[in-house]
């Protein structure tokens, strides 16, 4: 069964450093998302991406965050200058024209 | 208005029992209501979903009941099994981007 794949599975970074989280969405999907989940809390929407541009973003997705689809298969989330509160599990997700959103297994980011 | 409220926070059920998790929403623009199951260290996986023109949907042991006038929906897990022990999130989506707004999650434990 096709799946959303994410790398790295776990990354530890120093506060203030840049981090790039990578995702390969399911191949025929058109809509791409990043969500995050702080330990023990609910899953929160960050950003949606369609037709090579951001379609929606949440208040969390401030100027420190950016997304890119550099080569037609990868979808990346960049955090420019990480803060302690950015420590969370980051999920990439994708869907076709239908409603069902498929999630990857997540990238656990620890900022120290 | 964008919130989805979920209860209970945790639930313990004996094997073979019925697990019931409830959610309520405020925004009547929501038009798709999925339930996701999440195991520790994994991404959310779609379990079952419903649209507001249907009052009930059943898939195997899992049933969604939907009350449009009350703006509430619930997940019923019949004949609960220890393998059902996980965190369950209700969610809602709307609009063209269809990003999900998640409830706060219910940690279900099914005792053998």
Produce the secondary structure layout:
The complex is a heterodimer of chains A (about 110) and B (about 110).
Chain A: E1 5-7, E2 10-13, E3 19-24, E4 31-37, E5 43-50, E6 53-57, E7 65-68, E8 75-79, E9 88-95, E10 102-103, E11 107-111
Chain B: E1 4-7, E2 10-14, E3 19-25, E4 33-38, E5 45-50, E6 56-59, E7 62-67, E8 72-77, E9 86-93, E10 100-102, E11 106-111
Parallel strand pairs in B: 2-11
Antiparallel strand pairs in B: 1-3, 3-8, 4-5, 4-9, 6-7, 7-8, 9-10, 9-11
Write a structural description.
- The complex is a heterodimer of chains A (112) and B (112).
- Chain A is mainly β and 112 residues long.
- Chain A has strands at 5-7, 10-13, 19-24, 31-37, 43-50, 53-57, 65-68, 75-79, 88-95, 102-103, 107-111.
- In chain A, the strands form 2 sheets. In chain A, strands 2, 4, 5, 6, 9, 10 and 11 form a 7-stranded mixed beta sheet that branches. In chain A, strands 1-3-8-7 form a 4-stranded antiparallel beta sheet, with no helix packed on it.
- The model of chain A has no long low-confidence stretch (mean pLDDT 94).
- Helices cover 0% and strands 54% of the residues of chain B.
- In chain B, the strands form 2 sheets. In chain B, strands 2, 4, 5, 9, 10 and 11 form a 6-stranded mixed beta sheet that branches. A 5-stranded antiparallel beta sheet of chain B has the order 1-3-8-7-6, with no helix packed on it.
- Chain B is mainly β and 112 residues long.
- Classes of the chains: A mainly beta (112), B mainly beta (112).
- Chain A binds chain B through residues 4, 31, 33, 35, 41-45, 48, 50, 55-56, 91, 93, 95, 99-106, and chain B through 32, 34, 36, 41-46, 49, 89, 93, 95-105.
């Amino acid at each position: 069964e096709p799946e959303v794949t994410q790398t790295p599975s776990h990354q530890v970074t120093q506060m203030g450093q840049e981090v790039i989280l990578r995702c390969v969405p399911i191949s025929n999907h058109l809509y791409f998302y990043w969500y995050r989940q702080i330990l023990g809390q609910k899953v929160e929407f960050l950003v949606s991406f369609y037709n090579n541009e951001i379609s929606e973003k949440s208040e969390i997705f401030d100027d420190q965050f950016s997304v890119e689809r550099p080569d037609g298969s990868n979808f990346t989330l960049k955090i420019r200058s990480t803060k302690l509160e950015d420590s969370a599990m980051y999920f990439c997700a994708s869907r076709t024209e239908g409603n069902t959103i498929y999630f990857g297994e997540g990238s656990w980011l620890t900022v120290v | 208005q964008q919130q989805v409220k979920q209860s209970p926070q945790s639930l313990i059920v004996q094997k073979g029992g019925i697990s019931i998790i409830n959610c309520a929403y405020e925004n009547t623009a929501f038009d798709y209501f999925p339930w996701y199951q999440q195991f520790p260290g994994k991404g959310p996986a779609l379990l079952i979903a419903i649209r507001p023109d249907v009052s009930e949907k059943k898939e195997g042991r899992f049933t969604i009941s939907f009350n449009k006038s009350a703006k509430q929906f619930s997940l019923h897990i019949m004949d609960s099994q220890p393998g059902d022990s996980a965190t369950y999130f209700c969610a809602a989506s709307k609009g063209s981007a269809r990003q999900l707004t998640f409830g706060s999650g219910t940690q279900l434990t099914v005792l053998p």
